[in-house]
């Protein structure tokens, strides 16, 4: 129907930015390994903030015609490029400035910040839709989050300039830079590259199913009220944010592998029956959100640590940036789109089997990964 077509179109636009993420992970990852983590982080934030401001201030179709959607698409592509580099540079920066004994705890603040940002955006969206009429929202109100996001990014940039360049960074240590990083990665670190893909497989499904998609699924599949579905999603995100430092600190005590194996086994055993048993009540949706997000937090809280522990400093950012963003682009960018299409033809449960296959891939990766808790980074 028209509703499904509109939703598919929206998710298609959502996926556009993901196309640029692997390229951003490569280009900005190389930049981070050569010029420093801080420089790459500053560049990524400037690109992300600039893209948001361009979207928020873009001219209308009535004013510039076909140039309007072109401007929006280009801005979204720039944001995708920046996001690919932002994760790699932030991940390496936090992992490298952390004491070896507290690397998991420090790493947890990447997704703590991400969850906080999503919650702020959600609250802003709720406030705007409550305060403005539908006409005002569609005419100019939709621009406000993008403008505020762009300005907020510039403010966060000022805060991040106070963070020192890690001593392990080639830019700070004076080590020789790698002239052909992709060649070095493929020749010397192929197993580490595959590990990043294994790490990111189930985790990408987990994030995009339980953060942006589950409320829509509950509304469309079992007839849940929109306010109930999004309220459960919000509570789940709050819990997800709060447990990040808890699981990060726990991994510094018990190791990374036990948490990761528990996360993958939980999805392998419970994901399909719980998704199939969802009901249109707040309790049912919230329990499903808590299942998905709390288990996922066992990984997300220590993702920067375990990824950074796979590579030496001179190829660390690009070694994370390329395989991670390639996996996220292929799986995450099209997951909501594919789920919506399958749901429209009554076959959404076939996708659940794909998630279970992803759980097997990640579980095997976690079982065979080296345990480096408490050890200095190479």
Short synopsis of the structure:
With 378 residues, the chain is mainly α.
Description:
The protein has 378 residues and is mostly helical. It has a single domain (2-162, 179-368), classed as Growth Hormone, Chain: A (Up-down Bundle). Helices cover 82% and strands 0% of the residues. It has helices at 2-16, 21-35, 37-57, 61-64, 67-97, 103-131, 134-141, 143-160, 170-173, 181-188, 190-222, 226-254, 256-276, 282-300, 303-308, 316-332, 335-344, 348-368. The longest helix is centred in the middle third of the chain and has 33 residues, at 190-222. It is globular. It starts with a helix and ends in a 10-residue tail after the last helix.
What CATH architecture do you see?
A: Up-down Bundle
CATH class: Mainly Alpha
Shape, please? globular
How many helical stretches? 18
Radius of gyration, taken over Cα atoms and rounded to an integer in Å: 21 Å
Percent of residues in beta strands? under 5%
Instruction: List low-confidence stretches.
Output: none
Cα distance spanning the termini: 55 Å
Number of domains: 1
- Tell me how many strands there are: 0
CATH topology: Growth Hormone, Chain: A
Specify the helix fraction band.
over 70%
What is the average per-residue confidence, as pLDDT, rounded to a whole number? 87
């Amino acid at each position: 129907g028209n509703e499904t077509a509109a939703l598919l179109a929206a998710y298609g636009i959502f996926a556009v930015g993901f196309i640029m993420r692997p390229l951003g992970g490569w280009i900005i990852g190389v930049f981070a390994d050569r010029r420093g983590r801080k420089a790459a982080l500053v560049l990524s934030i400037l690109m992300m903030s600039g893209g948001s401001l361009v979207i928020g201030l873009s001219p209308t179709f009535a004013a510039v015609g076909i140039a309007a959607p072109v401007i929006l698409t280009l801005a979204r592509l720039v944001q995708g490029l920046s996001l690919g580099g932002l994760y790699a540079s932030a991940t390496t920066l936090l992992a490298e400035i952390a004491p070896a004994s507290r690397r998991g705890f420090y790493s947890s603040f990447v997704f703590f910040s991400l969850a906080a940002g999503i919650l702020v955006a959600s609250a802003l969206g709720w406030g705007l839709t409550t305060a403005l009429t539908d006409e005002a929202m569609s005419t100019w109100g939709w621009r406000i989050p993008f403008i505020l996001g762009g300005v907020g990014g510039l403010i966060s940039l000022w805060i991040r300039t106070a963070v020192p360049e890690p001593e392990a960074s080639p830019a700070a240590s004076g080590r020789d830079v790698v002239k052909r990083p992709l060649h070095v990665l493929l020749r010397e670190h192929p197993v580490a590259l595959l590990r990043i893909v294994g790490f990111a497989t189930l985790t990408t499904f987990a994030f995009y199913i339980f953060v942006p998609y589950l409320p829509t699924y509950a509304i469309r599949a079992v007839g849940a009220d929109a306010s109930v579905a999004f309220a459960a999603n919000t509570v789940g995100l709050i819990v997800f944010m709060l447990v990040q430092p808890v699981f990060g600190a726990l991994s510094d005590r018990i190791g990374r592998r036990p948490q990761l194996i528990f996360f993958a086994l939980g999805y392998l055993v419970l994901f399909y029956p719980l998704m199939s048993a969802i009901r249109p009540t707040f309790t049912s949706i919230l329990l499903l959100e808590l299942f998905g997000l709390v288990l996922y937090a066992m990984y997300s809280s220590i993702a920067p640590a375990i990824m950074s522990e796979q590579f030496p400093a001179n190829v660390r950012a690009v070694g994370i940036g390329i395989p991670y963003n390639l996996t996220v682009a292929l799986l995450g960018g099209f997951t909501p789109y594919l789920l919506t299409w399958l749901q429209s033809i009554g076959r959404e449960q076939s996708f659940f089997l794909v998630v279970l296959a992803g759980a097997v891939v990640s579980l095997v990766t976690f079982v065979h990964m080296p345990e480096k808790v408490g050890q200095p980074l190479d």
